[in-house]
Amino acid sequence: TGHPRREELKQMYGWLKPAVAVPMHGEARHLLANAQLAREAGVKTVVPAFNGEIVRLAPGQAKVVDDAPVGRLFRDGKLIVPDDSEGPVRARRKLAFSGIVMVAFAMNRKGELLCDPDVEIDGVPEEDRDGESMLDLVLDAVEGTLESIPAARRKDAAMVEDAVRRSVRSAVAEAWGKKPICKVMISVIEGKA
User: Fold this and answer.
1) Residue 74's beta-bridge partner residues?
2) For the chain, which terminus, N or C, has the lower number of CB atoms within 10 Å?
3) Residue from 118, 88, 86, 123 nearest 105 by CA
4) What is Dmax (Cα atoms) for the chain?
5) Under a CB-based contact definition with an 8 Å cutoff, are residues 165 and 183 in contact?
């Protein structure tokens, strides 16, 4: 396999008689076990180093002296981006798995709807298991949410946006079993009301 067993490592340490051992392969538990084995085999200086740790071997005593940035990087078009938990790579993975529902509509400052909502669905089935249109299900969720919010509270566009987003996401999840990404865009139109 390319991975020596304990006795093979002991034999190697016996042949080479290294002054310094730096275990370099495996999980933390493997590195620590290898360090202990090196000590037992008589290696005077053992420096277990973990991902990103920089070890100085000479001059002087061998030891960890610094850290280097580590982690996965992705090529994203012409860019190199880190594999962070909230980055664009994660968002596209989620989009590929669960699709997206976008809802857009206009309201006036009083919170009154000025037009029918526009809905775009991508990566979500067109119908639920009973043959009902997913588009109709989303429109019903939007309408029901808007009707359930008291007129005085509909003036808060951010609250309306969040309520519609949660309602649509929940309705699709109930029908499909997956929670899509859901984006709600509200245009608040100025003018006489």
Assistant:
1) 81
2) N
3) 118
4) 90
5) yes
Average pLDDT over residues 151-177: 95
Which of 183, 92, 97 minimizes the C-alpha distance to 83? Answer: 92
Query: pLDDT tens, 73-105?
Result: 878 889 887 776 667 777 888 888 999 999 999
110 C-beta neighbours (distance < 10 Å), count: 10
**Helix 134-148 vs helix 157-176: crossing angle, to nearest 10:** 140
- Residue 182 identity: C
> For a pLDDT cut of 90, what percent of the chain falls above it?
65
Helical axes 6-16 vs 28-40, angle rounded to 10°: 50
37: tokens are 């084995």
